[in-house]
Each structure stands twice: as C-alpha cells, then as structure tokens.
Amino acid sequence: MRTVRTVPAVLGAIVLTATAAALAPSTAQAVVACDEGALVAAVNAANTAGGGDVVLAANCTYTITSPHSSDGDGPNALPVITTAITLTGDTDTITRSSTPGTPAFRIAKVSAGGSLTLKGKVTLRNGRAATDGGGILNHGAVTLTASALTGNTAAGRGGALANADIAAPAKGPAATFTDSTVSGNRATGRGGGVYNGLRGSLTTTGSAVNGNSSGAQGGGIAAVDATSTTLTSTPVSANSATDAAGVYRRNGAMTLTTSPVSGNVPDNCVGSAPAVPGCVA
User: Fold this and answer.
1) pLDDT at 281
2) DSSP tag of 160
3) Which of 8, 31, 112, 234 has its CB 3.0 to 4.6 Å from that of 259, i.e. a possible disulfide?
4) Residue 1 has pLDDT above 90, yes or no
5) Are 81 and 109 in contact (CB under 8 A)?
6) CA dihedral of residues 163, 168, 171, 172 (deg, nearest 10)
7) Is the Cβ–Cβ distance between 171 and 142 less than 8 Å?
C-alpha cells in the first residue's frame, strides 16, 4: 500500500525547485579544435563575451606560427587577455613554432583588467619576447594549477613570467602557482624564471623553479620592489645567473616555507638586500 506524505506548500516548492535544478541538463562546453586558428578564435570570443572557460582538446599541441596581437610591449601568440579567461587543458601545450624563420613573440599578455588561469596540465613553451615576459607578461592576474612554463626566453626580464612594474595608485599584478613548474627558461635581465616587479605579488605552493638562467640576478626568481613574494613547498634549484642565482631580492616582503634555495650557480642568493629568508649563500 502506498503511503502519501503531506508536505507544506512552501516547503514543497523548495523541494521541487531543487529537484528540477538537479535534473536540468548541463550545457557542455565546446572543446577547441587542435588548431592555431581555432584557439585564437576561442580566446577572442571569450574576451568579447566578458570572459569564459576555453576548453582545450586533450593531448594537443597548439603550435602558433605567427603573433595574433601586438602593442608597445611587443607581439603575442594569443590575443591580449583583457577579461577573466581560463584555459582548461587535458595535457596540452601552447608553443611558438620552432620552424626556422618563425618571428619572435611571447605566448600571452594579460592586461591590467584581465586574468588568465591555466589548469589541467597546460604548458606554455618556446615564447620569445624582445622585452619582458617570454611566456607571460602580466599586468593583471595569472594563476597556474598543475601547469608549466618551460623553455621561454625574454630579452628583458622574466623568462617564463614577468609581473610588470606597476606604479601607484594602479593595482599591482599578481601571479599564483599551485603544483606547477617553471623550468628551462632564460632572460637577459633579472628573473630567468620569474620576475616579480614593482608592487607585484607572487605566491607559489607545491611548485618547482629549476633549470632557469639569467644574464643578471635571479636565475630562478627576481623580486624587485615587489609587494610580496611567498614560496611554500617550492624548491628553487639548479638555476644560474651572475649572482643570486636562486632568488634575488631587492626590498619587498618575502616569506619562504619549506622552500629550499640550493644548488644554484654560482651561488643561491648573494647580493640580495635584505637577505632572502633562510637562504645560505
């Protein structure tokens, strides 16, 4: 025999609404075809829409053969990120073509009003900037989760990423790395891996900065007049520079927690002022 349970009208409305929501079909996000033009079009569309999630094709290498934006900071592989855009990957690489004759350009620039998130094993590789930020030049916000910046080059500062120098009263740029890798990048100026500039913020957790090089200070990381540099469980090793090959600090708050700076050449942090916390030579 069926038992009928009586529910007050208002409560019943709440239950029905929740059930309907649970049963409503979800809208699938279209996957971007493994093609340079498709990726550029998707980023443009996300910018136009005021931001969005760009879902990359699984196990794809998006090879960029020419820049698709340019301004006073030089050319970029992708359109300038002016809104909140997430690149959701599934073991993907976005790389500047290594074919001889390919022009020099970085992979991405994030404007002051924009934010770029990489998640799901997305790697940016082989960017080449004539100024700062071989992989990413950041004026806004950058977040990497389980992703990587590898093999990028800057003639200026920040081989992998440069948090641009931003004067007051404008908001400084912020970069956050979680379970991510910065490796094999190179800069002629400071910050072979990462340059954290004036009023910038850099926060890393469970990440690694290794095998980068600088023609000046900070083969791994250079923090110059930055607001804050906070490393947690982030070893900085096997980087090279003229000095302070691991981490270079000039002013600004800096905190290192279980983040050894070791095995850098010719030294780890010599010349930093004030000293890098816990760093030995």
Assistant:
1) 84
2) S
3) 234
4) no
5) yes
6) 20
7) no
